[in-house]
Amino acid sequence: EIQEKRQHYNKCRQDLDELRAEHQVLRRTITLLEQDRARYQKLLSPDGTGMEGPVGSDAEGKSMEELRQMSEKVMDQIKSKKQAVQPQLDRRKDIRKQFEEVEQDWKTRKHAFENTTNKIQE
Q1: What is residue 52's DSSP assignment?
Q2: Cβ–Cβ < 8 Å for 9, 1
Q3: Quick one: which of 59, 72, 100, 114 has the most CB atoms within 10 Å?
Q4: What are phi and psi of 61, to 5 degrees?
Q5: What angle is formed at CA 103 by the lines to CA 100 and CA 108, rounded to 5 degrees?
């Protein structure tokens, strides 16, 4: 009977430790959320004043067709911005290739230099 009580005590103790750990995590989460409460309230306000575009107050009272047109318009804007940035992305890719080639050459020369200096020092 004592052994059963001891096992029950140990189980309750483990449960209590888990609850304390969960309490600490929840406390930290609450603290972090309270720090940004005003920003979240503005974003999630029912009148949508914090929202931009079709997700906010502009979307209220619109038909599905109008919402579809708004989403297509947004998608077109995204595509045009992506196309505007594409040359820069291509240039970045080319520069990165050049950098990797130069870096590999530098590593090879550095290794050769270190080997020659090590031989001189010996």
Answers
A1: -
A2: no
A3: 59
A4: 80, 10
A5: 125
Residue type, 112: A
Q: Give 40's contacts (C-beta < 8 A, 6+ positions apart).
A: 33
| Residue whose structure tokens are 């077109």 | 76
Distance CA 35, CA 31 (A): 6
Exposure string for 21-38, b = 16+ CB within 10 A, e = fewer: eeeeeeeeeeeeeeeeee
Ramachandran assignment for 53, one of left (phi > 0), alpha (psi -120 to 50 degrees), beta (any other): left
Rounded distance, CA 85 to CA 93, Å? 13
